[in-house]
DNA sequence: TGTAATCATTACAACAGCATAACTAAATGT
DNA sequence: ACATTTAGTTATGCTGTTGTAATGATTACA
């Protein structure tokens, strides 16, 4: 699988692999260590990061607890706990599923959407040192990242 | 601070800010959601990620518990707990501080270094989709990331 | 020399994260 | 109609994280 002329028909030379490794390691340092904002968001919204994660998963639109559980890779029981907490805080509510009376949909309240927006603002605001780069560098990064996202 | 002609003497136009934001958001998706290897490393080494974090902090060279606590932003008591655990596993040992007899240095054993190396290998291995990019894209990413780390 | 500050530890205590098993209600398939 | 499956909840417990207070040993300073 790693030999020349493999499935992709493309050989990645050593220097490129090293560059990729260096870049990946650097990205980890940047995002995990230097600009990790989990604590910051958690403090700003007064809730643990796992709740914020849930909030952001629900934000795009109502979904069943099952779907939420799958997207967060957690058990149904723990999902119930998380949603209970969001409901208690007034950020989410359970509404009946339109066709399946076993299921419930979770959706954000207006407050919940506001909280999700605040979280998104904090989490997606690029750090100073990124904005300080030249325009070409930022655009190059943007281009490569969008390729990676497929 | 945000007005034209600010401290840096450089104005960042809107499109560039948007590109930076998009790139930053994309990076977060990539590293936090899509290729998050915390669980993987934790399972591979049979210990929680916080232990692995400690292992990696100690790896560069012996340091006092206080220094370790600062670099991990944890309390001294919890640092003791973590080091105790690493010692119990045979990955670290406490040695007397050369000049301050109150303090102790923590350093990795040979096994500890091997474990740290395994962790580093898993965490810094670039994901498939990064290696699948064109050489120029990888090099561009590497270049921008190294600027950011600078 | 004695007092205060520092390093590490111990002993608790509280809470977050996450899993398992048992249960109810509703849907599905025979 | 009955058995099986599925959605969600409840009860329970274990592990890991993190804080506070108290203790012992050593160092630094007045």
Would you kindly provide a written description of the structure presented here, covering whatever features stand out?
Chains A, B: This is MarR family transcriptional regulator. Chains A, B: It holds the Pfam family MarR_2. Two copies of one chain form a homodimer. By secondary structure, chain A is mainly alpha-helical. The first copy, chain A, contains eight helices and three strands, in the order αααβααββααα. A three-stranded antiparallel β-sheet of chain A has the order 1-3-2. In chain A, strand 2 and strand 3 form a beta hairpin. In chain A, helix 3 crosses helix 5 and helix 4 packs across helix 5. The longest helix of chain A is centred in the N-terminal third of the chain and has 21 residues. The structure holds a DNA duplex (30 and 30 nucleotides).
């Amino acid at each position: 699988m790693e030999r020349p002329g493999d499935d992709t028909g493309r050989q990645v030379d050593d220097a490129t692999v090293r560059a990729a490794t260096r870049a990946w390691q650097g990205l980890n340092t940047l995002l995990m260590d230097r600009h990790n904002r989990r604590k910051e968001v958690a403090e700003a919204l007064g809730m643990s990061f796992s709740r914020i994660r849930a909030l952001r998963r629900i934000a795009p639109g109502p979904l069943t607890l099952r779907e939420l559980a799958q997207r967060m890779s957690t058990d149904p029981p723990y999902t119930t706990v998380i949603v209970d907490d969001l409901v208690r805080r007034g950020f989410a509510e359970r509404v009946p599923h339109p066709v399946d009376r076993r299921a419930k949909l979770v959706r954000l309240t207006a407050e919940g959407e506001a909280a999700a927006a605040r979280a998104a603002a904090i989490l997606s605001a690029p750090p100073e040192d990124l904005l300080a780069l030249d325009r070409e560098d930022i655009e190059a990064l943007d281009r490569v990242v969008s390729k990676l996202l497929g």
